[in-house]
Fold this protein.
Amino acid sequence: METTADHPFLHQVYDDDDRDDLTVELTFLIVHANPYRRLDRSALTVCDFSPAKDELFAQDMLAGEDLRLFEEVYARTYRAHPLPNVAVYLRADPGLCLERVQERMRREPTRSFEAGMTLERLRRMEERYDDALQRLGQQSLVCHVERHMTADAVVRAVAELLRQRVPMIATL
């Protein structure tokens, strides 16, 4: 399980005055790659994480030589590790996402590093994810998250989506 708040460089993502984007993105790549590369591939793999996530964020944050270096490290890191069989993309309106980030900061002051999150950035990432659906997994499913949905309702919606769209799961 990722402990985002423990990321040593995360505060820099939202701090335009003191950013080292290459360090941030390479650190995320390593933090995510270690558990992903250890997944048991002898069974069906369903994830709400895809290695493509790191690539999409790097493309938003990096350019030029930094982006080329990141892409080389990314390709080498995941070369022998296939995409998940099924990736579930939890898609929510960027405005709703921003509201939830702000609410989370009120509940968890340790997440104050997210204060720099902008609606513009969330919209850019939504567009990147929408354009990259075919790269998220061997099969990518979209679960639309609505304002009224609780965490339990999202889990039920994902489970139903999987039952409908993934034959192996429907029989379980």
Notes: Residues 9 and 24 are 6 Å apart (CA to CA). The two ends are 25 Å apart (CA to CA). The beta strands are 46-47, 86-92, 139-145. Residues 21-37 form the longest helix (17 residues).
